[in-house]
């Protein structure tokens, strides 16, 4: 779905935001960040390529005039139009796909991932990749590869059903390659994973510099999510191999990587990113938009705000609250935030857990709130129970509102909080309950922590700092000009093209 908007302005710097499941079709912290970035730069022309679910998702953000167009790329909607490849193109694509899946399954063949991916990207641009992956030949290639002697996946006895399932998952995951690619300016992927595919293809095809910002660690979250996914190990080996090698290719090729915290930086360096190409840029808020929250509730209350999702681990929070209530029978737990489509079963599971523990009367899921400040003001202490985070907006917003916090030690949480809140291990209800009780029992300490938290935000985590930093990055990357591209169809897909890696050169002046 293409949504035209404001007209492009001659001479303006152009940035294409690459998103997945967030801006401008969804609420949440990453969407807030995107909206702040776009809204804060009226001098920059933006396009948005948004990977969505079905393509029917409505726009939930007001789109400013500097956004020229929004392109929705549905991963699970109807199959994109195209035609099966024939003749030489079919043979080239078959060879590239064989090299691609071999890289996913054979540690000795991982160098083939990038060259094969770019041949497949060129096929996607011509409408050939999707029909190929939906045909019998692609399934036969995978079946042949993972039954080769010596591959670990062979020991799991993969079936034809596994091959069909894995091929279908790859076909959906690779659909973003078929979207019209940015040809000028800067491509800015605001997460890793499938959102970055058009950016890698635009770098390869048109020489557009790629900027990567990871809020959470996309690869880590895929590992966590696939632990309970309903697939056999051969399928998981293919899909997780794809996400791992895609992350490594992105880290190697990006002109600059701007993680939101030092924790993410460690993952990126481990994945092959050049440390000189990484600069940590913290999220920021406008302290005037999140002023001190005012009087606390009279009844002891824990509040939480966010997206109702397993990654937020609300079950641990509910279990911790049950322990709190043993000491403070009058306590309440108020949870604010929407439930994404498909997440209703998780919310119901959390509600059922509260009921099973005997606390349904004190645990309330209150949905989206018109003013998020009300969610922070609703608690004496604001909680964060996630098992994965980047640099969470809800945390620094609550800090700006002067509320004491209890948070899990994930991602950039400890960097955000410093000594102005309590940090506990993830998935540990007892530790979380003990921290909450410690603050609920000490009003003077809560007040002191809240005041220190707001001062920390004002000094280190303002929105103005974030926007100014990214504007400077956009201008400097744009000034680099296009990186010399090459045509993957003319390359020998059986040869690693190290000689062409001159296009991987990164702007050292941006490193920090």
TrEMBL record:
SUPFAM superfamilies tied to this protein: UDP-Glycosyltransferase/glycogen phosphorylase (SSF53756)
Pfam families, alphabetized: DUF3492 (PF11997), Glyco_trans_1_4 (PF13692)
TM segment ranges: none
Single annotated GO MF: glycosyltransferase activity
Residue stretches making up the DUF3492 domain: 14-276
This protein's name: D-inositol 3-phosphate glycosyltransferase
Organism: Streptomyces fructofermentans
Lineage of origin: Bacteria, Bacillati, Actinomycetota, Actinomycetes, Kitasatosporales
């Amino acid at each position: 779905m293409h949504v035209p908007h404001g007209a492009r302005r001659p001479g303006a710097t152009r940035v294409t935001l690459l998103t997945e499941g967030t801006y401008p079709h969804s609420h949440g912290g990453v969407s807030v960040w995107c909206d702040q970035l776009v809204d804060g730069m009226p001098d920059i022309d933006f396009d948005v390529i948004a990977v969505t679910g079905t393509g029917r998702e409505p726009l939930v953000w007001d789109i400013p005039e500097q956004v020229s167009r929004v392109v929705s790329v549905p991963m699970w909607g109807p199959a994109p139009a195209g035609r099966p490849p024939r003749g030489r193109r079919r043979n080239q694509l078959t060879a590239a796909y064989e090299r691609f899946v071999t890289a996913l399954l054979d540690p000795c063949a991982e160098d083939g991932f990038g060259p094969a991916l770019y041949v497949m990207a060129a096929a996607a641009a011509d409408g050939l990749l999707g029909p190929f992956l939906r045909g019998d030949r692609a399934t036969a290639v995978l079946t042949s590869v993972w039954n080769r002697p010596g591959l670990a996946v062979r020991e799991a006895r993969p079936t034809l059903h596994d091959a069909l399932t894995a091929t279908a998952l790859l076909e959906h995951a690779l659909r973003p390659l078929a979207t019209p690619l940015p040809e000028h300016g800067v491509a800015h992927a605001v997460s890793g994973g499938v959102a970055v595919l058009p950016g890698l293809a635009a770098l390869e095809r048109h020489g557009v510099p790629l900027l990567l910002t990871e809020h959470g660690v996309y690869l880590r979250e895929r590992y966590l999510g696939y632990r309970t996914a309903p697939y056999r190990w051969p399928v998981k080996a293919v899909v997780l191999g794809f996400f791992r090698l895609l992350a490594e290719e992105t880290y190697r090729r990006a002109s600059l990587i701007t993680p939101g915290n030092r924790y993410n930086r460690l993952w990126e360096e481990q994945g092959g990113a050049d440390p000189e190409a990484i600069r940590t840029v913290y999220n920021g808020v406008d302290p005037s938009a999140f002023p001190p929250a005012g009087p606390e509730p009279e009844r002891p209350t824990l509040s939480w705000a966010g997206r109702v999702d397993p990654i937020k681990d609300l079950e641990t929070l509910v279990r911790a609250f049950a322990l709190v209530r043993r000491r403070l029978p009058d306590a309440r737990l108020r949870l604010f935030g929407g439930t994404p489509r498909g997440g209703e079963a998780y919310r119901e599971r959390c509600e059922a857990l509260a009921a099973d523990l005997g606390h349904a009367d004190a645990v309330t899921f209150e949905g989206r709130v018109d003013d998020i400040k009300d969610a922070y003001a609703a608690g004496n202490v604001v909680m964060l129970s996630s098992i994965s985070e980047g640099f969470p907006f809800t945390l620094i917003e609550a800090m700006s509102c002067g509320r004491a916090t209890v948070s899990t030690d994930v991602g950039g949480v400890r960097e955000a909080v410093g000594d102005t809140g309590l940090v506990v291990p993830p998935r540990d209800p007892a530790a979380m309950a003990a921290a909450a009780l410690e603050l609920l029992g000490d009003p003077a300490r809560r007040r002191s922590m809240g005041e220190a938290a707001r001062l920390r935000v004002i000094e280190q985590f303002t929105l103005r700092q974030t926007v100014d930093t990214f504007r400077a990055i956009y201008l400097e990357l744009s000034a680099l000009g296009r990186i010399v591209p090459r045509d993957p169809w003319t390359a020998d897909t059986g040869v690693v093209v190290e000689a062409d890696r001159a296009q991987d050169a990164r702007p050292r002046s941006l490193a920090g």
